[in-house]
Amino acid sequence: MRLILLGPPGAGKGTQAQRLVARHGICQLSTGDMLREAVRNGTPVGVRAKEVMDAGQLVSDDIVIDIVSDRIEEADAAKGFILDGFPRTVAQAVALDEMLKAKGHKLDAVIEFKVDQNKLVDRIMQRAKETEARGEPVRKDDDPVVFKTRLEAFNRDTAIVAPYYAERGLLVTIDGMQPIDDVAQAISEVLETV
Ligand code: AMP
Is the Cβ atom of 191 under 6 angstroms away from ligand 1? Predict the structure, then answer.
């Protein structure tokens, strides 16, 4: 199974991706996680991406496309994957199509989380609080000011990715404001039909 989870930051993509990993045994490919790891490890990509990420802007398409293209070549991605946080631009979506075509693979579904953007800051602040309570470091971009920039980047560059997939008959929209279990149930129902 090859899936994309689409939606603004704080929509719950990561949470649902983890559930899908546990249930279907396929891997979660989160470009945000991969970039944060690169930053932690001080790799050349990490060094280039750090400031952009801290500011809540999008990392350049070429960097992100390279990361994903390498990652989907790895053995654990052969069974399928859930893309979380990618594609975030139409250029990334086009590049993904090319990558999959070259491997003779197809996407099964693109699931869009519809959310009330006014409620997302609260969700992000809650996430930061929970992370802190677990004694883990809080993401620098989980901050109300940076979050606003992340949301702007979503509305400017990423919102048009959903229509790209709708035109290709792949888009399914679910209500991302429901409780976590209900969102998971809605996703299961979508997956039964693909
Ligand atoms: P996320 O964990 O998905 O919220 O991503 C955190 C940050 O990583 C984003 O705000 C961007 O700076 C960067 N990032 C993650 N995925 C992408 C992507 N597909 N394209 C560009 N930048 C990305």
Answer: no
Domain that includes residue 163, residue range: 2-189
Q: Is residue 194 part of a domain?
A: no
In terms of pTM, does the model score above 0.85? yes
Question: Sheet harboring 109-114: ordered strands across?
Answer: 27-30, 81-84, 2-6, 109-114, 171-175
Ligand 1 contact via 151 beta carbon (within 6 Å): no
Mean pLDDT of successive 10-residue segments in the chain (194 residues)? Answer: 97 96 93 97 97 97 97 94 98 98 95 96 92 93 94 98 98 97 97 92
Pairwise CA distance, residues 154 & 131, whole Å? 23
Looking at the structure of the chain, the number of domains it has is 1
CATH number of the domain within which 170 lies = 3.40.50.300
Asked whether residue 83 is domain-assigned, the answer is: yes
Calculate how far, in angstroms, residue 61's C-alpha sits from the geometric centre of ligand 1: 10
Catalytic positions, written as ranges: 13, 88, 127, 139, 150
Ligand 1 atom having least distance to the Cα of 9:
4
